Amino acid sequence: MSDIREITVTLTTAFGKAAFREINAIKQDIDSICERDPAARNSLEVVLLYSGLHALIFHRIAHALNKRNIKLPARAISQLAKLLTGIEIHPGATIGKGLFIDHGSGVVIGETAVIGNNCTIYQGVTLGGTGKESGKQRHPIIGDNVMIGAGAKILGGFKVGSNSKIAAGAVVLQDVPENSTAVGIPAHIVKRNGVKVNPCDDLDQVDIPDPVENEISALKARIDALEKKLSSED
Questions:
Q1: pLDDT 10s digits, 49-74
Q2: Quick one: which of 21, 84, 100, 126 has the most CB atoms within 10 Å?
Q3: Distance CA 161, CA 164 (A)
């Protein structure tokens, strides 16, 4: 009896601590939405109406079950969350505190993805694999304070450094250093540590520079200059 009592106390304590951690994480998720979304008027509105938060709550429950090798219920919860919110997060994904999924429709987060603290993800984002990778890390590792614009695709088991920004519609296929801004298909670094790699404004998801267009413009200007030089020699 004493052994059963000891096991019961141990399990209750473990689950109690896990529940406290998850509740604390959810509270920070709510606070992050209120801080970063100008449309959020109060915490009650966020709790009742924000699908991104609802998806995170489901995920934190599913992730806790997945860690305890309770796989089928964990997947069932993630699929229910997908049905209700339009956001698919695999139970195996590791998500830090303060994640803000804005709108969220079409967001997909893969099994081995890791997301740091205080990140922002917009609708249509995919944190996926390339289909050619295997092993423990098939999906991206996202640092802290990362912003990922609408429709961006980050594919592969590499890292996106903390404090970086991924432009809307970008396709990221390799590492992004910390404090960087990446745009384009495939994504190019246009700003790093506050220094512009190519002329561009700070990322606002509208006035986004196109590295390919910039290169084509530069080549066109070079061709025009050469043609002018040839014409003058004639």
A1: 999 999 999 999 999 999 999 999 99
A2: 100
A3: 6
CB atoms within 10 A of CB 132: 7
Instruction: Say if CB 67 and CB 90 are below 8 A apart.
Output: no
Backbone angles phi, psi at 158, to 5 degrees: -115, -175
Distance of alpha carbon 18 from alpha carbon 182, whole angstroms:
36
The confidence score (pLDDT) of residue 234 equals 65
pLDDT digits (tens, 9 = 90+) for 126-173: 999 887 767 788 999 999 999 999 999 999 999 999 999 999 999 999
Question: Which 3-state string (H, E, C) describes 170-207?
Answer: CEECCCECCCEEEECCCCEEEEECCEECCCCCCCCCCC
Paired tokens of 206: 């509208």
Eight-state DSSP code of residue 80: H
2-233 belongs to CATH 2.40.30.40 = no
In the numeric block, the tokens 């890390």 are attached to 137
Which two tokens mark 183? Answer: 């745009």
Decide: helix, strand or coil at residue 219.
helix
pTM given for the model: 0.74
Nearest residue to 147 (alpha-carbon basis) of 217, 208, 83: 208
CA distance 60 to 80: 13
In three-state secondary structure terms, 111 is: coil
Structural tokens at position 48: 């009742």
Q: Which residue has the tokens 């413009």?
A: 217
- pLDDT value at residue 8: 52
